[in-house]
Design goal:
Blueprint: H1 2-15, E1 27-32, H2 48-58, E2 62-68, H3 91-102, E3 106-111, H4 116-121, E4 126-128, E5 134-139, H5 144-159, E6 165-169, H6 181-191, H7 205-230, E7 235-238, E8 257-261, H8 266-277, E9 284-289, E10 291-294, E11 297-300, H9 303-315, E12 319-325, H10 337-348, H11 351-354, E13 358-359, E14 363-367, H12 369-372, H13 387-398, E15 403-407, E16 420-424, H14 431-442, E17 446-450, H15 452-457, E18 464-466, E19 471-480, E20 483-491, E21 494-496, E22 500-507, E23 515-526, E24 529-534, H16 538-544, H17 549-561, E25 567-570, E26 575-582, E27 585-592, E28 611-619, E29 627-630, E30 634-635, E31 639-641, E32 644-652, E33 655-660
Parallel strand pairs: 1-2, 1-12, 2-3, 3-6, 6-7, 8-9, 9-12, 14-15, 14-16, 16-17, 17-24
Antiparallel strand pairs: 4-5, 10-11, 13-26, 18-21, 19-20, 19-22, 22-23, 23-24, 25-28, 26-27, 27-33, 28-32, 29-30, 29-33, 31-32
Helix pairs in contact: 1-3, 2-3, 5-7, 8-9, 9-10, 13-16, 13-17
């Protein structure tokens, strides 16, 4: 036994030197438990053998483990920070030893701006809010916290423990304007504005917000540069940086992008967040929580549920990780290992066809960073003001249309790649972008403006006459193609000019005989292209009263504009499609979206009903050499005629990839 113990200790010691060779952050696991001050006996039942068994069974590409949560207490015996009541073992050393044995990169979860314990001990480190109160959770970006606690701990993790990287949590979504005297003085020196604005209606409030956003990017850069200086191969990111919550061009040295998709309806959240990260030019991944919470009760999701969420991420070319909690002594939940194994296998089987593939431009949904920054909010980088964007994405996806999300900085020189662009309920756009969009249409593009206020801003180009002011939160009926629904939304009453096509009308009764005076949507020729208007806020209606009407309406508008889309799917309304290219091959990703993922009372479901007889039409000038279903290299019958490849799939279970060579 002494010899075995000596060999184990030798292995443990030797494995701590050097990091794992660089590997993709593709199929991963995330563990954390946000250690608290009262936690004791951390490591009590934690063993080398337990983690060795876990990695042998599951075979992830990387893992992230707890390090310091929002409470500010470490789950390892740091020499420079705040620790819990007691440790039985240094579990970080064991994590490192076992991951080195298996060649698995080890990252840590570390809470950044949010550190409650640091502020209990050092209240003067806190951010000062607009009412001059000192924040009890969030530190000041330019205070002592960064140099005296956060950077020393990151350097400790990178050097003493030789970890591969850190995933910094509690950062952008906790950010707010910081009224510390030093920050105010710096703002005055840089801008010449000596009276700092404290309310959104105050003069120069936008400039104040932009200054604080810049300070935040400086704060991230400082801790990344320090970590890189200590260990050049240490990879680090700030959770949700340059994502939907921070829709800007990457301009600081983050090594990758990532975020955790929590809350309800994670299938659609994964679809949305993936599209916000996919064009940012950095390796990226998304994390699904493996559990749901309702009434403070935890329910672990099924493997099928998590696979469905993973499919939305993989199809867009990202890596996928899932979040599993640790017990209070730091151990993972052993009974979950089989679920983790199945999920990791599902992900890795598809890597060859998905990871870092390029999405083929077809429909671009515009995320106006310019307009978003001008929506009043309590924070600076968070998810405010995105309901119109999210729900219009859902409408387009549920219409089986292939969609990407384009932020302002994606538009330069790239608009003409997209047969269709959709502007979803944004107002107060950047004038330069308005000019670019008009030129895009006049040169042959197709632009759809959605929303009462949004269409009001474009009225002189839509081929319409204004009848009255916007009707706010109105109840009315709309219909087209033998369908009528009731709706509650803002709408803009207009009249179409003679050369403008109408798609759908208001109705005065639930009867197609009683057509009202106002169009629902119009299509108008503008130069060589077409511009369409949808004169109501579709997002609120689709979020609260889902029906197939709005996806069908949007699909009809797109069809009538006759864009040059390369892929069409029919046979079921419950499919999302993505078209990508990788290594000279095209891939059509079909995701089965059945299941009660949008039911807030269904925390867990374990069945996705197979879809039958799905027809895919793909436009290509050359007859394919080979068409396969992946993974599995399954041959599939197809027809090729008039530059259209058509195939009928007897069944789509959960996630089918069509490979075209």
């Amino acid at each position: 036994m002494k010899i075995k113990a000596l060999l184990f200790l030798t292995l443990l010691s030797s494995q701590l030197f050097g990091q794992v060779p660089d590997k993709d952050r593709f199929a991963g696991l995330h563990f954390d438990f946000h250690a608290g001050l009262g936690d004791k006996h951390i490591g009590e039942t934690f063993t080398f053998e337990m983690i060795d068994s876990m990695l042998t069974i599951i075979k992830p590409d990387f893992i992230q483990v707890d390090c310091k949560g929002h409470a500010g207490i470490t789950s390892y015996p740091t020499k420079v920070g705040n620790t819990p009541e007691s440790f039985d073992k240094d579990i970080m050393k064991i994590w490192r030893a076992v991951t080195n044995k298996h060649g698995v990169p080890l990252f840590v979860h570390y809470s950044g701006l949010w550190d409650s314990r640091a502020l209990e001990l050092h209240p003067d480190w806190g951010r000062i809010n607009a009412d001059n109160s000192v924040d009890k959770r969030v530190v000041a970006m330019d205070g002592p916290y960064l140099d005296q606690l956060m950077i020393p701990q990151l350097v400790e993790l990178a050097t003493s423990y030789n970890l591969d990287g850190a995933w910094i949590d509690g950062d952008c979504w906790m950010l707010g304007n910081d009224f510390t005297p030093s920050n105010i003085a710096r703002f005055a020196a840089e801008t010449g504005i000596n009276t700092v604005p404290r309310k959104s209606e105050d003069p120069q409030y936008f400039e104040w917000m932009e200054f604080n956003r810049k300070q935040f990017r400086n704060y991230i850069t400082r801790y990344i540069d320090a970590a890189h200086a200590a260990q050049k191969n240490f990879k680090i990111t700030s959770n949700w940086s340059f994502s939907s919550m921070m829709p800007e061009k990457v301009d600081i040295p983050v090594d990758f992008l990532s975020g955790d998709v929590a809350g309800s309806n994670s299938l659609y959240s994964s679809a949305f967040e993936s599209r916000c990260l996919a064009l940012q030019g950095k390796p990226w991944d998304l994390m699904s929580w493996s559990f749901s919470w309702k009434n403070d009760i935890k329910a672990t999701k099924s493997v099928v549920q998590l696979q469905q969420e993973a499919a939305e991420v993989l199809a867009m070319g990202g890596g996928f990780q899932s979040y599993w909690q640790q017990n209070r002594d730091g151990t993972p939940e052993v009974y979950q290992f089989d679920k983790m194994k199945e999920l990791i296998a599902f992900t890795k089987e598809r890597k060859k066809y998905c990871y870092e593939a390029q999405v083929i431009p077809q429909i671009g949904l515009l995320y106006s960073t310019y307009a978003w920054k001008r929506i009043p909010s309590g924070g600076l980088y968070n998810s405010h003001g995105l309901e119109g964007l999210k729900n219009n994405l859902n409408i387009l996806l549920d219409a089986q249309l292939p969609v990407e999300i384009l932020m302002d900085h994606h538009l330069a020189g790239g608009l003409d790649k997209y047969p269709v662009l959709v502007l979803p309920e944004w107002k107060a756009l950047n004038p330069a972008i308005i000019s670019d969009l008009l030129n895009y249409v006049k040169q042959g593009g197709n632009l759809i403006i959605v929303g009462a206020e949004a269409t009001q801003d474009w009225q002189k180009y839509l081929g319409i006459e204004v009848v009255g002011d916007i009707h706010r939160n109105a109840k009315f009926k709309i219909g087209f193609e033998q369908k009528i629904i009731g709706i509650n939304a803002d709408f803009f009453p207009i009249k179409a000019q003679k050369d403008t096509e109408v798609v759908g009308w208001h109705y005065t009764a639930d009867d197609l005989r009683f057509k009202g005076d106002f169009p629902v949507a119009t299509i108008h020729q503008l130069g060589k292209g077409k511009i369409a208007g949808v004169y109501l806020n579709t997002s609120s209606s689709y979020a609260n009263y889902q029906s197939r009407f709005l996806p069908d309406l949007m699909h009809t508008i797109v069809d009538k504009m006759k864009p040059d889309l390369i892929s069409k799917v029919s046979g079921s309304r419950n499919i999302h499609q993505v078209v990508t290219e990788k290594n000279g091959k095209r891939y059509i990703h079909l995701i089965n979206t059945t299941g009660p993922h949008d039911n807030p009372n269904a925390a867990v479901y374990d069945e996705v009903v197979p879809l039958q007889d799905i027809v895919v039409s793909y436009k290509t000038s050359k007859k394919p050499q080979k068409v396969l279903l992946q993974p599995g290299n399954q041959k599939v019958a197809y027809q090729y005629k008039n530059e259209i490849l058509q195939l009928k799939l007897p069944q789509v279970d959960l996630y089918t990839i069509i490979e075209i060579e």
